[in-house]
Design brief:
15 helices; about 550 residues; six-stranded mixed β-sheet; five-stranded antiparallel β-sheet; 11 strands; elongated; alpha+beta
Length: about 550
C-alpha cells in the first residue's frame, strides 16, 4: 500500500518532495506492524497513521492540480490501519480512527490554501473525495467485523475434540454406574495450565484445585517456593468458596492459605467452568498489593476458559476408570471367595476326616497328610490376604496413610513381620485416582517383602503433601537379586502404576541387607507447616 501511495503521489503532484509523507507513514506504522496486538503500541501506531494520512491528503491535494482530487492519492492508505484494527477485533478502535481522520481532514482543509488561493475545505472535489473514502472505510470496517463474527460462529459450531471426548466420557460414566455391583491426565493438564498462567501474570504461589467429594478440594498442581496449605473446604469464608459458588473470578487482599505469615498479599481465584458445571479453581497469589487488576484477570480467563473443558474431560476419564477398576476388584474378590477359597476349605475338611479315620500305624502316611494340611492352611491364608488387598480402598475420611498402615499391620501380623510405620500426611488430599494407585504400589511392595524377601522387619514410610507424595517400603531380607521371578513381575506392575500417575519408582538395596522400594509423585516442597496426622516411627 505504501508503494501504491508513492506512485499515486508522484502521478498527482510530479513532486518527489511530497514522498516525505510516505516516509512518515512508514515510520508511524512500524510500531503497529511489529506489535499489532500490543495494548499500547498497536493503537498508538494506528492513530498516528490516520493523523498523517489526513494531513498528507490536504497537502498533496494543494500541491496537485488544486481542485482537491489530489487527496485521493493518499486516502487509499486509510484501509491499512482500519483493517489491522478489525483483524485484532477492535471495532470500537476502528470507529474512533474514522472519527479522528474526519476531524483532522476538516481542520487541515480549513487551514491549507490551494493554488487558487482558497481554502481546501471550500473545494467541492476535496470534500467529495474525503467523504468517498471515509464512507468506504466505514463499510470496510463493518464488513471486516461481520466477517470476524461469522468465522467465530462457524468455529464454535464445529465439533471440538475435547467437547466430543467429554460427551462420550459422560455417557460411559453413566453406563458404568448402572452396571451391577495425554493427554487425559488431570495432573498434567493442571501443571501445563499453571505454566501458561505464569507467563501472563505474576504469582509467587499458584495452584489448581478440583473437587473430590465430601465438600472438599484437592490440589492437582502447585507452584511456589514454600508449601501452601490452601483452603480446601467449600463452606469456609474465603475467595475460594465464593468463586466456586458464584462461578466468577474473585480477588482478595488476604492469602487463601490456612496459615500465612502476613504482609501485603494479592489473591486471585478463577473458577474453571465447563458449561454450567464448576470443575475446579485456579488460585494465584502475589506478595504485593493490587497485583491483579481487571486487564490481568481478563488475560488469566483467556487461558482458564478453554482449559476448563480439557480438565473436565480428564476428570471424567479418571472417574470412569476408577469405577471400572473398583467393580473389577469386587468381582474378583467374590469369585475367589465363592470359588477357590471354598473348595480349599472343603479339601481341608477332607484331610481332617482322613486323619481321624487312619487306623494304620504308618507314620509316613500320617506325616504326609499333616504336611498337606499345613499347605492347604497356607494357601487359605494367602487367599485371605489377596481378598483383603482387593477390597482395601482409601477411605474418604481416613486418608492414604491410614489405608497403607492398616494393610501393613494386617500383613505383618499374618506373616510374623515386625512393622515399623512412619506416617506424615497433610490435611490436604491427593486426587482419588492417585491415592488408589499409590495404595496398590505400597501393597505390592509389602507383598513382595512378605513372600520373597524372608525378612524379619518391615519399614513403611508415607509422606503426603499434595501434590507431592513419597511412599517407601524397606525390608531386612535377602536382596532383590536373590528373589524369585514372580517378585520381579510385581516390580514391573509397580513401575506401570507409577507411570500412570506420572510418578518415579526407585528400587535400591538396603544396608546391610534387604531392599528399599519407593515411589515419588511431584516435587518435595519445604516442610515447615504442621501436618494433619502423624504416627511415631516404630509402631
Amino acid at each position: 500500500m505504501l508503494a501504491l501511495v508513492a506512485v499515486l503521489i508522484l502521478v498527482a503532484t510530479r513532486d518527489p518532495v511530497q514522498l516525505e509523507w510516505v516516509v512518515l507513514l512508514a515510520a508511524a506504522g512500524a510500531p503497529a506492524a511489529l506489535a499489532p496486538r500490543h495494548r499500547l503500541f498497536g493503537p498508538l501506531g494506528r492513530f498516528a497513521e490516520v493523523v498523517i494520512i489526513a494531513l498528507a491528503a490536504s497537502q498533496v491535494a494543494a500541491a496537485a492540480a488544486g481542485d482537491g482530487w489530489g487527496a485521493s492519492a493518499v486516502l487509499p492508505y486509510l484501509a491499512v490501519p482500519l483493517t489491522a484494527a478489525a483483524l485484532s477485533r477492535r471495532t470500537v478502535e476502528g470507529s474512533a480512527l474514522i472519527g479522528v481522520t474526519a476531524g483532522v481532514l476538516l481542520v487541515s482543509g480549513a487551514v491549507t490554501t490551494a493554488a487558487a488561493g482558497e481554502r481546501q475545505l471550500v473545494q467541492p472535489w476535496y470534500l467529495a473525495v474525503c467523504a468517498q473514502w471515509l464512507v468506504l472505510a466505514a463499510l470496510g470496517l463493518y464488513t471486516a467485523a461481520t466477517f470476524q463474527r461469522v468465522v467465530r460462529a462457524r468455529g464454535a459450531a464445529q465439533p471440538q475434540p475435547y467437547a466430543e471426548a467429554t460427551r462420550l466420557l459422560t455417557q460411559l460414566r453413566s453406563v458404568a454406574r448402572q452396571l451391577p455391583g495425554a493427554t487425559l491426565d488431570p495432573g498434567g493438564i493442571s501443571e501445563h495450565l499453571v505454566e501458561e498462567l505464569l507467563t501472563v501474570t505474576r504469582a509467587d504461589r499458584a495452584a489448581v484445585l478440583s473437587a473430590s467429594g465430601g465438600g472438599r478440594l484437592v490440589v492437582l498442581a502447585q507452584r511456589g517456593a514454600d508449601r501452601v496449605d490452601w483452603e480446601t473446604t467449600l463452606d469456609a469464608d474465603s475467595a475460594i468458596a465464593d468463586a466456586w459458588a458464584s462461578q466468577q473470578p474473585q480477588t482478595a487482599h488476604r492469602s487463601q492459605a490456612r496459615s500465612h505469615p502476613g504482609g501485603d498479599v494479592s489473591a486471585l481465584v478463577v473458577p474453571l467452568v465447563a458449561g454450567v458445571r464448576t470443575v475446579g479453581l485456579v488460585a494465584l497469589e502475589a506478595d504485593v498489593a493490587s497485583a491483579y487488576p481487571l486487564p490481568v484477570v481478563a488475560r488469566v480467563r483467556a487461558l482458564t476458559d478453554p482449559a476448563a473443558l480439557r480438565l473436565e474431560a480428564a476428570l471424567l476419564f479418571d472417574e470412569v476408570r476408577s469405577l471400572a477398576t473398583n467393580e473389577e476388584r469386587q468381582r474378583l474378590a467374590r469369585e475367589i471367595h465363592d470359588g477357590v477359597a471354598q473348595e480349599l476349605v472343603m479339601v481341608g475338611y477332607g484331610i481332617d476326616n482322613a486323619l481321624a479315620t487312619v487306623h494304620s500305624d504308618a507314620k509316613e502316611t500320617e506325616e504326609a497328610l499333616r504336611t498337606l494340611r499345613a499347605e492347604v492352611t497356607r494357601v487359605i491364608t494367602e487367599l485371605r490376604l489377596s481378598l483383603f488387598e482387593l477390597r482395601s480402598e482409601v477411605d474418604r475420611h481416613g486418608g492414604l496413610a491410614a489405608a497403607i498402615a492398616e494393610y501393613a499391620r494386617t500383613v505383618g501380623a499374618s506373616a510374623g513381620l515386625r512393622v515399623h510405620l512412619s506416617l506424615d500426611e497433610s490435611t490436604a488430599r491427593l486426587p482419588a485416582a492417585t491415592e488408589a494407585e499409590l495404595l496398590r504400589i505400597a501393597q505390592e511392595a509389602v507383598t513382595n517383602a512378605r513372600k520373597h524377601a524372608s525378612a524379619a522387619n518391615l519399614w513403611v514410610t508415607c509422606e503426603v503433601d499434595p501434590p507431592y507424595a513419597r511412599i517407601e517400603v524397606s525390608d531386612d531380607g535377602q536382596g532383590i537379586a536373590d528373589q524369585r521371578p514372580d517378585g520381579r513381575y510385581g516390580l514391573a506392575i509397580m513401575a506401570e502404576r507409577a507411570e500412570r500417575i506420572r510418578g518415579r519408582l526407585e528400587i535400591s538395596p538396603r544396608h546391610p541387607s534387604g531392599t528399599t522400594v519407593a515411589v515419588v509423585v511431584g516435587t518435595s516442597p519445604r516442610r515447615d507447616n504442621v501436618r494433619g496426622s502423624t504416627a511415631p516411627e516404630g509402631e
